Amino acid sequence: MAGDPRPAAPSGGRPSARALIGGGLAVLGAGAAASAAALAYGHLVELNRFHVRRETLPVLPPGSPDVRVLHLSDLHMIPGQRRKVDFVRGLAALEPDAVINTGDNFSHLESLPWLLEALDPLLDLPGAYVPGSNCYFAPKPKNPARYLWLHTGGERRREDPAAVLPFREMHAAFDSRGWRGLVNTTGELTVRGVRLDLSGVDDPHLGYDRHPGFAPAADRAAGSAADQPSGTPAGRDARTSADRAGAPPSVRVGVAHAPYLRTLRRFAEDGAEVVFAGHTHGGQICLPGGRALVSNCDLPPSRAKGVSHDEGVPVQISAGLGTSRFAPVRLFCPPEAVLVTLTARPSDESAPSRSHPSR
To answer: Which parts pass through the membrane (predicted)?
Structure first.
């Protein structure tokens, strides 16, 4: 209207509340759709994108032949997982010299036949194993995201008879094929003329671990090293001299399911020269590039998969081959088996010595 003193409303005025709400819902919807797509990919694709990671660790005495160790962990077997069974059976084609299984083999009460079918070709090889919590107890339904913020380790679980897994039958099957059970005890494997002196613990995640140290027999076999504390420089020098005198070269190997810091440090104190563990699933749901957000124990997430070092000792942690059946998803963290080649140290490099005596 002519003469109207009011200014005209600007054409680009403030958005209405309805427009703001609509835009916000669109953003939330897009985020939800992206999350749903990522989870669908993690369940349908990455969960079954099995692969082999390869590592080389120079931990054997100079002049030793290479020893190829296949590290398996966290199979979390479920009846019907044919692709996983076929992948694990096919690992025999890698021709490893020995197998180390670091536990959590089950995710279902009826999965023992599937597990034994998967492992059958590998049970013909020298091997050793330790249990994890999901060798003893079946998993329970829970919010999968709970894994990202709640730390539940170090507590003993009350045994529910309805949830107890067939771990005794599994151990008996492994033992009958010659694998060494390392449930808070020591063992020994000799492959390609190299002796693996093994020390294993029951699951630290449940608080079942009781460290046995390393067997005195290992030192006796190394001659004069028997007279020296195993974790001291003198003990290591004696072992090296014994190796040169004709005793088989040897390496001390710690084996555990869950890589709690107390466990790794105790292995180091006992004189371990390499440690194998699992449990972390590599973080399972990771950021791009495989950057873990959690380790499901007190280990820093940056160490949830691969080789790191604790007290100078190389620690090989597997991201595992499975998940709980109630959280069947992986993201930026595909399931893996690990082929670890233990090779000789250079002749001018001695084993790392630590001042802690063996307990």
So the answer is: 20-44
- Spatial contact of 228 and 238, defined as CB atoms under 8 Å apart: yes
Q: Which letter does DSSP use for residue 278 in this model?
A: -
Residue with the two structure tokens 């233990």: 342
* pLDDT at residue 147 in the model: 55
The percentage of the chain sitting over the pLDDT mark of 90, rounded to a whole number, equals 67
Q: Which two tokens stand for residue 321?
A: 């081959």
Q: What is the pLDDT of residue 9?
A: 45
Specify the pTM.
0.81
Angstrom distance (rounded) from CA 198 to CA 208: 18
* Phi–psi pair at 203, nearest 5 degrees: -65, 115
Nearest in space to 237 (alpha carbons), one of 357, 66, 342, 352: 352
User: Rounded distance, CA 168 to CA 185, Å?
Assistant: 17
Identity (one letter) of the amino acid at 190? T
Question: b/e for 117-150, b at 16 or more Cβ within 10 A?
Answer: ebbeebbebbbbbbbbbbbbbbbeeeebeebeee
Architecture of the domain delimited by 50-344: 4-Layer Sandwich (3.60)
| Sequence-separated (6 or more) residues with CB below 8 Å from residue 187 | 128, 180, 181, 198, 200, 215
Residue 321, class by beta-carbon neighbours within 10 Å (0-12 exposed, 13-18 middle, 19+ buried)?
buried
pLDDT tens sequence across 109-139: 999 999 999 999 999 999 999 999 999 999 9
